[in-house]
Amino acid sequence: MASGPNAHFVDIHPLLDDDNSSSRNKPGKQPMNGPAKFRGGGGGERKPQGHRSFSRQVSLETGVAALCMEKELKGGSSSSSNGKPETKVLPRSGKSLGGLRDGVGVAGGVEACARKGDFSIFRTKSTLTKQNSLLPSRKESELDLQNLEGVAGAGPDDPVNESVSAGRYFAALRGPELDQVRDSEDILLPKDEVWPFLLRFPIGCFGMCLGLGSQAILWGSLASSSAMKFLDVSPYINLALWLLALAVLVSVSITYAFKCAFYFEAIRREYFHPVRVNFFFAPWIACMFLAIAAPPAFAPKQLHPAIWCAFIPPVFLLELKIYGQWLSGGKRRLCKVANPSSHLAVVGNFVGAVLAAKVGWAEAGKFLWAIGLAHYLVVFVTLYQRLPTNEALPKELHPVYSMFIATPSAASIAWAAIYGRFDAVSRTFYFIALFLYISLVVRINFFRGFRFSVAWWSYTFPMTTASLASIKYAEEVPCFFSRALALSLSLMSSTMVSLLFVSTLLHAFVWRSLFPNDLAIAITKKRHSGPRSQGKEKKAVKKAYDIKRWAKHSSLSLVSSITKSNSGDKDSNGR
């Protein structure tokens, strides 16, 4: 044991019940309710000077130890008149939780501490290893875990690590892309603080790559199409757009890769989001757009098959997962989560079919085209009839209806690329897309009065695919009407992309509002409920347990009574 003038010892005495007050006052007994005593190594009792005050009290009523380390304040109110620091005495109650008990409950205190600038709940688990090693090894198992429900990582029912149901997203969120929290909802992160940049960087940023990549394809087609030779479009426009789209794709991919490395829990939340899950197809579709739009100076006329093999497997694996959820049913069945952005999960098949034709693998293109057609029909019918089990889309989600144009337009282009001509099948899908395009244009009010979002870039490539299909149709049916239609649709899509590009630059560098806090990933797994509803839930659970216990005992008593009656019958028959 350490000894010397600088050594200090602590006497810890148990805090007895009020019923034992008589035994405390007996002569010869040391009182048990006094503060901790410090003994110097050399003799009489004294408190250490110039050191941090250390106090510990143990309540035998609950078995919870409260350990308090506090620094000596210079001239503060915590010091007494004689310069000695005040000793913090815990109240004698059922739960010795110190400061957490004063004015707030256990759950409220811990939840407030967890939400005040604590963004580690969404960090990747491997990055928390060093931080967790610095925490005390003692487990606070005596705390009431039911009161801590709703705090991230505070119990077995972790609201961060467990998946959030699709209906919960529809119930808690509103606005474009379901990215705004309703007023009646609570979130796991603070709303009044600016979150880290990676947490504010959504998967929808890949929509910029889709818009720019499709524009590169469009201007390449305008420069090389025989039906649009009267425009005399320079091929350098295609080169400039392709380089810009490549730069944006590389920067967005690197940034999102950092987000995956440091905030993987936020990636999981985006994957469970019923709208954003479809944007996980966007990076690979954007890569295929760049491969299709590659300028002749950088790529040969027929691409290498390795390019197709690099971009299609991720799309195919995602389709196996998402299409399997649509087919098997459950909480994420198609009639529950279907929304216009679900077309992104289908259009990748047709873009992959176009790329397969570019590399010379026509059979692989036919395979992808068949898969895309089957699931497009299912998605189209589901969205059109709007089943009662499907969640209703809010008004702010109307801009995503432009996604209806993308899939039939891409299907017509893919069929023409595989079979070499814009025949009856291609024209059928093109006319479907053209009708949907007109039906959206006449409802222009759908696209007014909404807050700008980066995800709007994803809704520009449907207009571009319709323009590309119009160019193919003008090549097959050369006339004034077809050429005028192709030119007008191309100008509309390019104008829309230009407006979004300028708006993005203004929000990024002038107004600095391009990446607000991504509230959609921070909703709780269940709606926050007050103590009254929690008491009702506990009563319901207890009632269910009592019923189960009663049924078990009733079945046992019934079996025992039947056994006794059978044994009595045997005895009577024997006599």
Automatic annotation (TrEMBL):
<keyword id="KW-1003">Cell membrane</keyword>
<feature type="transmembrane region" description="Helical">
    <location>
        <begin position="344"/>
        <end position="361"/>
    </location>
</feature>
<keyword id="KW-0812">Transmembrane</keyword>
<keyword id="KW-0406">Ion transport</keyword>
<dbReference type="GO" id="GO:0006873">
    <property type="term" value="P:intracellular monoatomic ion homeostasis"/>
</dbReference>
<dbReference type="InterPro" id="IPR038665">
    <property type="entry name" value="Voltage-dep_anion_channel_sf"/>
</dbReference>
<dbReference type="GO" id="GO:0005886">
    <property type="term" value="C:plasma membrane"/>
</dbReference>
<feature type="transmembrane region" description="Helical">
    <location>
        <begin position="367"/>
        <end position="387"/>
    </location>
</feature>
<feature type="transmembrane region" description="Helical">
    <location>
        <begin position="424"/>
        <end position="442"/>
    </location>
</feature>
<feature type="region of interest" description="Disordered">
    <location>
        <begin position="1"/>
        <end position="57"/>
    </location>
</feature>
<feature type="transmembrane region" description="Helical">
    <location>
        <begin position="480"/>
        <end position="502"/>
    </location>
</feature>
<keyword id="KW-0813">Transport</keyword>
<feature type="transmembrane region" description="Helical">
    <location>
        <begin position="454"/>
        <end position="474"/>
    </location>
</feature>
<feature type="transmembrane region" description="Helical">
    <location>
        <begin position="399"/>
        <end position="418"/>
    </location>
</feature>
<dbReference type="GO" id="GO:0008308">
    <property type="term" value="F:voltage-gated monoatomic anion channel activity"/>
</dbReference>
<protein>
    <submittedName>
        <fullName>Guard cell S-type anion channel SLAC1</fullName>
    </submittedName>
</protein>
<comment type="similarity">
    <text>Belongs to the SLAC1 S-type anion channel family.</text>
</comment>
<dbReference type="InterPro" id="IPR004695">
    <property type="entry name" value="SLAC1/Mae1/Ssu1/TehA"/>
</dbReference>
<feature type="transmembrane region" description="Helical">
    <location>
        <begin position="239"/>
        <end position="258"/>
    </location>
</feature>
<dbReference type="Pfam" id="PF03595">
    <property type="entry name" value="SLAC1"/>
</dbReference>
<dbReference type="GO" id="GO:0090332">
    <property type="term" value="P:stomatal closure"/>
</dbReference>
<feature type="transmembrane region" description="Helical">
    <location>
        <begin position="197"/>
        <end position="219"/>
    </location>
</feature>
<dbReference type="InterPro" id="IPR030183">
    <property type="entry name" value="SLAC/SLAH"/>
</dbReference>
<feature type="transmembrane region" description="Helical">
    <location>
        <begin position="305"/>
        <end position="323"/>
    </location>
</feature>
<dbReference type="GO" id="GO:0012505">
    <property type="term" value="C:endomembrane system"/>
</dbReference>
<feature type="transmembrane region" description="Helical">
    <location>
        <begin position="279"/>
        <end position="299"/>
    </location>
</feature>
<keyword id="KW-0472">Membrane</keyword>
<keyword id="KW-1133">Transmembrane helix</keyword>
<feature type="region of interest" description="Disordered">
    <location>
        <begin position="73"/>
        <end position="96"/>
    </location>
</feature>
